[in-house]
Automatic annotation (TrEMBL):
<dbReference type="GO" id="GO:0006631">
    <property type="term" value="P:fatty acid metabolic process"/>
</dbReference>
<feature type="domain" description="AMP-binding enzyme C-terminal">
    <location>
        <begin position="449"/>
        <end position="524"/>
    </location>
</feature>
<protein>
    <submittedName>
        <fullName>Long-chain-fatty-acid--CoA ligase</fullName>
    </submittedName>
</protein>
<dbReference type="InterPro" id="IPR020845">
    <property type="entry name" value="AMP-binding_CS"/>
</dbReference>
<dbReference type="Pfam" id="PF13193">
    <property type="entry name" value="AMP-binding_C"/>
</dbReference>
<feature type="domain" description="AMP-dependent synthetase/ligase">
    <location>
        <begin position="18"/>
        <end position="400"/>
    </location>
</feature>
<keyword id="KW-0276">Fatty acid metabolism</keyword>
<dbReference type="InterPro" id="IPR045851">
    <property type="entry name" value="AMP-bd_C_sf"/>
</dbReference>
<dbReference type="InterPro" id="IPR042099">
    <property type="entry name" value="ANL_N_sf"/>
</dbReference>
<comment type="similarity">
    <text>Belongs to the ATP-dependent AMP-binding enzyme family.</text>
</comment>
<dbReference type="Pfam" id="PF00501">
    <property type="entry name" value="AMP-binding"/>
</dbReference>
<keyword id="KW-0443">Lipid metabolism</keyword>
<keyword id="KW-0436">Ligase</keyword>
<dbReference type="GO" id="GO:0016874">
    <property type="term" value="F:ligase activity"/>
</dbReference>
<dbReference type="InterPro" id="IPR025110">
    <property type="entry name" value="AMP-bd_C"/>
</dbReference>
<dbReference type="InterPro" id="IPR000873">
    <property type="entry name" value="AMP-dep_synth/lig_dom"/>
</dbReference>
Length: 541
């Protein structure tokens, strides 16, 4: 027998409608790209999102088309999130930290028809524009006063002009909840970045689940600072969960350094902040150096890379609790959090610290299991380690415009590429990664790309890139190189070889020369073995 409850679609526009109706005067504070702090409310954001939806409709954008953004965390980007998805188009957040060819690939692959971008990226977009085949309109996300006098982009549109000229009367269409809402690319281990296409349903369910007290704990009583960029898995869904709950939102713009973040946290009374470990290290160092205390912060969500244990105590000195979040672009991204249970209430500090060094237990909606190399399930005993597989309503079922591949098992689980243990209480801990990408400051560096370049050097026979723990950036690339017989090359010469071929922050920190690299029986490079061999490697800088 069918239940008799209403079949109302879960839509992103309803989050904004709710925020406007019940939290209309709750503030959204942004550090603008132009400089000053910008303040308005959820009510203003909703009104301007409708204006933008009208403007995009006038530009000819229709349901199912893709609108790209190259933008920091700010109020205009927030409006774009809601206007684009709300009208039935797909909000494609492009990561500006990628290098030019990858950005061009992503925009072309996503078939973006409009590209909206912050002032910071004007020169980059001018350079890329001729290679962006599907973009019909370029929109600079600024006001008339900041529009460039001259630009090579034909008919560059001004965001504020578009919004100002458009009516704020707009009825959000009642879409199918499974319709695509947004798109985000993730760098794979091989080849081009892969797109993850979210739906309205997955986004709203993820907003519910990530708001829970045991997840990110989002509430109308709180003030939330997403330092994780809005081009990085929708800033962990915070623009949606904050609207759902009517939380005050503080958007740091392009400034994520310790001084700027400290200022925002103190001035805006931020209670919850979220981002990668590198950001918190910078903030904590700034506080320590200048004998500063944070007064309002209750919780810091640390994810993207493992949180160092010392950070738990450092944050505690400011009265803030560290909560680790494990997630992936393919998971929208929230999967597990390290929240303690009732039975841990009497635990000593060391036990709790241990708990927070784990990636955490599953949020309801995320099923997880560990399997061995043959795909056989392993026990959750805290000892057995295997490949982590997940499934759930906000987990990717297939990469955008790609065939189903080995990322998914035949019985429908997603292979995360993380090697983990799960203890009897359900707490997962990452022990290794089967994927070989290197994670620096929360962003991926492709090891394959680094290797391919270096083997192009006439003296290099074989090269392997591995991520080695780094005190500031979590991991930095180290190249392990075998030279051709009879050939010579120096460290500096090989590092120089990268100049102009990759984004400068991708450049490896060091090169070591070895006689041979470890291989499997089938001749595959054994990255795990190599990582083990260099586990104690110490950076000289
Ligand atoms: P994110 O936005 O969370 O960085 P990505 O898709 O770029 O998402 O990266 C996902 C990968 O990052 C995971 O598979 C895992 O290897 C790593 N990761 C994410 N969160 C954590 C964490 N808390 N601790 C350790 N590694 C993590």
């Amino acid at each position: 027998m069918r239940g008799q409850m209403m079949d109302q679609p879960l839509l992103i526009s309803s989050l904004l409608d709710h925020a406007e109706r019940y939290h209309s005067d709750t503030e959204i504070v942004s550090r603008s790209i132009e400089g000053p702090i910008h303040r308005y409310t959820w009510g203003d954001a909703a009104r301007r999102a409708r204006q933008l939806a009208n403007a995009l409709t006038d530009l000819g954008v229709v349901e199912g088309e893709t609108v790209g953004t190259l933008a920091w965390n700010g109020y205009r980007h927030l409006e774009a999130y809601y206007a684009v998805s709300g009208m039935g188009a797909i909000c494609h957040t492009v990561n500006p930290r990628l290098f030019a060819e990858q950005i061009a690939y992503i925009v072309n692959h996503g078939e973006d028809v409009v590209l909206m971008f912050d002032l910071t990226f004007l020169a980059m977009v001018e350079q890329l524009a001729p290679t962006l085949n599907t973009v019909r309109h370029f929109v600079l996300m600024t006001d008339r006063d900041h529009m460039p006098r001259e630009t090579s982009i034909d008919n560059l549109l001004c965001y504020e002009d578009l919004v100002r000229r458009s009516s704020d009367r707009y009825e959000w269409p009642v879409l199918n909840e499974n319709a695509a809402s947004s798109l985000c690319y993730t760098s794979g281990t091989t080849g081009n970045p892969k797109g993850v296409l979210y739906s309205h349903r997955s986004t709203v369910l993820h907003a519910f689940a990530s708001s829970l007290p045991d997840s990110l704990h989002i509430s109308a009583e709180g003030c939330v600072l997403p330092v994780v960029p809005m081009f990085h898995v929708n800033a962990w869904g915070l623009p949606y969960s904050c609207a759902m709950n009517g939380a005050k939102l503080v958007l740091p713009g392009a400034k994520m350094d310790g001084i700027s973040l400290y200022e925002l946290i103190e001035n805006e009374h931020v209670t919850l902040a979220a981002g990668v470990p590198t950001v918190w290290l910078m903030l904590l160092q700034h506080c320590e150096r200048n004998h500063l205390k944070m007064h309002s912060l209750k919780r810091v969500i640390v994810g993207g890379s493992a949180a160092p244990e010392s950070m738990i105590d450092q944050l505690a000195e400011h009265g803030a609790e560290l909560r680790q979040l494990w997630g992936m672009t393919e998971l929208s991204p929230c999967g597990t959090t390290s929240t303690p249970k009732f039975k841990h209430r009497a635990s000593d500090a060391q036990t709790l610290r241990q708990l927070h060094t784990r990636q955490g237990r599953a949020i309801f909606g995320v099923d997880l299991r560990i399997v061995d190399d043959m795909g056989r399930p392993l026990p959750h005993d805290g000892v057995a380690f295997g490949n982590l597989q997940v499934r759930g309503p906000w987990v990717l079922s297939q990469y955008f415009r790609r065939e189903r591949d080995s990322a998914h098992t035949e019985d429908g689980w997603f292979n995360t590429g993380d090697v983990v243990t799960v203890d009897k209480d359900g707490y997962m801990k990452i022990t290794d990664r089967t994927k070989d990408v290197i994670k620096s400051g929360g962003e991926w560096i492709s090891s394959i790309e680094l290797e391919n370049i270096l083997v192009g050097h006439p003296a290099v026979a074989e090269a392997a890139a591995i991520g080695v723990p780094h005190p500031k950036w979590d991991e930095r690339p180290l190249m392990v190189v075998v030279l051709k017989p009879g050939q010579t090359a120096t460290r500096d010469e090989l590092l120089d070889f990268y100049k102009g071929k990759i984004a400068s922050w991708w450049t490896p920190n060091d090169i070591v020369f070895v006689a041979e690299l470890p291989h499997t029986a089938t001749g595959k490079l054994q990255k795990m073995k190599l990582r083990e061999l260099f586990a104690d490697y110490k950076w000289s800088d």
